[in-house]
UniProtKB/TrEMBL annotation:
One of its GO terms (cellular component) is cytosol. The gene is nadA. The keyword Secreted does not apply. Its EC number is 2.5.1.72. It holds the Pfam family NadA. Its cofactor is [4Fe-4S] cluster. It comes from the Bacteria. The lineage of its organism: Bacteria, Pseudomonadati, Pseudomonadota, Gammaproteobacteria, Enterobacterales. One of its GO terms (molecular function) is quinolinate synthetase A activity. It is found in: Cytoplasm. Transmembrane segments: none annotated. This is Quinolinate synthase.
Amino acid sequence: MSKFIDFNQSVYPFPTKPKILNPNEIAFYYKHIQSLLNKKNAVIVAHYYTSPEIQILAEKTGGCVADSLEMARFGASHPAITLIVAGVKFMGETAKILSPKKNILMPTLESQCSLDINCPEKDFIQFCNENIDRTVVVYANTSAAVKARSDWVITSSIAVDLIKYLKNLGQKIIWAPDRHLGNYIQEKTAADILCWKGTCIVHDEFKSQSLKMMKKMYPDAAVLVHPESPKDIIDIADVVGSTSQLIKAAKILPNKSIIVATDKRIFYKMQLVVPEKSLYIAPTGGAGAVCRACAHCPWMTMNSLHGILDALENGKNHQIQLNEDLIEKALIPLKRMLMFADTLKCNN
Ligand code: SF4
């Protein structure tokens, strides 16, 4: 039994992309942002899917570029009083929940996520209440309100480990919102999982027929796949993992060519790690294609240097605000995730 969302009812108001900057404009923004970061005791926490200009700036100014788990960890432990979260809205909310006293700013508050959009609080709570005997595990890509209704929040890097752990405790699971990740975890663990039916509009676009043709063109290439991708893509993968795990795999694998099924902005960091290797994005075109995202998240694209500067200059229009009650409730499953991740780290 599964919960279906009517995707025809889903509205994706795809945003316009920020303008491409020339080197002088980039230098202008870097100079002003750097000075304001110092003045306001602020640091940038950026996701791998943001633009190379933002990733470079984050690292250059003592911030971090990471997956959502590491972003959460870094932001919570950093002494800065203001965090600039370059990513999508749920990442800003997670930072606020973990650091309620900090000022959490985002380059834009409009950057959404299809998984979050397609898991509305009211429907989700009803779904949980109809299946009260199940432990509620939600992916990090959810709103603060959905997190507050859950028992556990989890990221893709440790999702399989957590579900194995819960299965061994004899628990039945509600998983939300990504159905591909849910199916992947179910296959890996054989746990009893009731799955919400959301998808990531970026990963859902990868096409297995075209990927098989690409494999014929590059027979020695390894295929790295994010588990938000459809099963027929995962079945072709040499490695399935979170963004951090895929970057690590690119380094460890002996293959000189690598085909990657995730947002193509990961290539900036991956290519730095393996400068000698050829990286190719997995195809989103071909048979049955109706590509809307083409391997790049339209909401991640909304993060811009201009947005970061504006956030530092006019904080209020960029500020994440959550009420205390919600923070208190959502903090419980988030803390469980961080403690579980720490335990895993110690055991490995
Ligand atoms: S890439 Fe997919 S999962 Fe990630 S923020 Fe964009 S829509 Fe959400």
